[in-house]
Amino acid sequence: SGAAAISAVLKVNLPVAAFITAIVSTFYFAFGGMKGVAWVTLLHSALKYFGILIIMGFALSKTGGFTPMIEQMPAYYWTWDGNIG
Question: Which residue blocks in the chain are alpha helix, DSSP H?
Answer without folding.
Answer: 2-10, 14-27, 34-63, 66-72
